[in-house]
Amino acid sequence: MAKTFKLRLGSRDVELLQNIDRCPLTPEQMFQLAAAAEQPFPSLGDLRRRLRQLKRAGLINGWPYAIATTGRSPFYFKLTRDGFRFLHGTEAALPRRRHFEQLSPYHHHHTLSLSSLVVHLLVSAVRHGHTIEHYARENSVCLKADPFTIYPDGVFVLRRSDGRSFSFCIELDNGTERVRSKLDVECIERKLRGYDAHQSQFDAYDSNRYLVLLVTTRSRKRLDHMLMLASGIQRDPNRTVFLGANLQTLLQIDPFATAAFEDHRGLKRVLVPFAPAASKSGESVPQVRATGVQ
Questions:
Q1: Cα angle vertex 100, ends 94, 103, to 5°?
Q2: CA distance 22 to 120
């Protein structure tokens, strides 16, 4: 009879599992997140040893990415069913079976790019005293606006250091879909129209409003094409629905300090507005109301 490997879990282990629950992560990506946390790992080697223990305990599983690298292919880790139940409780409804299985090679580039984006946003947010809350995994949120149905690559709420919150959807583009198509098939234009139709259901200051982050892993020319298309299809051209950025550029800068995103009007923007400056008396200086979901 096989012996059950028992492992005492601490707060640092829970944080590791919570990070993996957002999206599949490599040890290097987990180390970046842990370095920004209250209890960082002393070294990448220590983190790898802990991952082996978590895997032996049946809480996570890992596989190699099938991508071109100069060295060994990085491993990515996902929760097992037991790991999911540990985080969410035994009564929580389990995601579909493929959520716990090895990724199809076709999705490797997309998943690695998406996890790189999420990790960068999380680490950058912590640096500014912000937090990312209520992160919803890829395809776990359904947005409906007849006749459109959209499943974002990620949905999250960012709480700024002063307590104000901003909502976002992630739409990661790998250049595999057509930007436009006359056929009734999946294409970028249809997604943009769907998001715009869904946003049109809310008024300017509705708490359900959000911004869509259009992040492309390909050329700047493709991003320009997408933003130009967004400008043409929006029902209200004065409203901001989409913010675009190139992933490679975005990963090299701080999106909370540098205007890394661009809207459909060509205006450069940081991810969220800067918090109101404090006056000499310690009170906040009033600002004209603005929202990250405008």
A1: 140
A2: 13
Q: Among 129, 169, 164, which residue's Cα sits nearest to residue 290?
A: 164
32-86 pLDDT tens trace? 999 988 888 999 999 999 999 999 999 999 999 987 666 678 999 999 999 999 9
**Ranges of the chain with pLDDT below 50:** 1-3, 278-294
Count of alpha carbons within 13 angstroms of residue 220, beta-carbon side:
6
Q: Would you put residue 43 in left (φ > 0), alpha (ψ -120 to 50) or beta? A: beta
Q: How far apart are the C-alpha atoms of 47 and 52, rounded to whole Å? A: 9
pTM for the model stands at 0.87
Cβ atoms < 10 Å from Cβ of 11: 10
What is the dihedral angle through the alpha carbons of 146, 114, 251, 255, rounded to the nearest 10 degrees?
Answer: 40
Q: Give whole-number Cα distances, 286 to 11, 128, 278, 289, in Å.
A: 39, 21, 9, 9
Integer angstrom CA distances of residue 153 from 20, 85, 111, 115, 138: 15, 23, 10, 10, 4
